Amino acid sequence: MKYMMFVCNDSQPDTDRENLPDIEAWVAENDARGRRLQGSALAPESAATTVRVRDGELILTDGPFTETKEVIVGFDLLECADLDEAIEVARTHPMAREGRLELRPFMDL
């Protein structure tokens, strides 16, 4: 089952600074096991463009469109047997302690 894992910063990171996981080791392990299909950091939210259409009119908003301290900073596309495995993969990601991770399964259309 495929999962999109949104990597987000967080205004309340873990205060325990011991034994922080290494992102390069996490990537290497999950790539080798075939669980991480793709992933990348994203440009800062100031580079974002929001696209909407209202009443037939294109509306573009540049940069941050909300006042928020928590933003998506990257993503990983995961292939896992089930949600339990996806949670285990997310649990070991460094941003599980520094930020937060949101897992969403892909819909079967």
TrEMBL record:
| Domain YCII-related residues, every copy | 1-107
Q: Which residues form the signal peptide?
A: none
Tell me any Pfam family this protein matches: YCII
UniProt record similarity statement: Belongs to the YciI family.
Q: Tell me what this protein is called.
A: YciI family protein
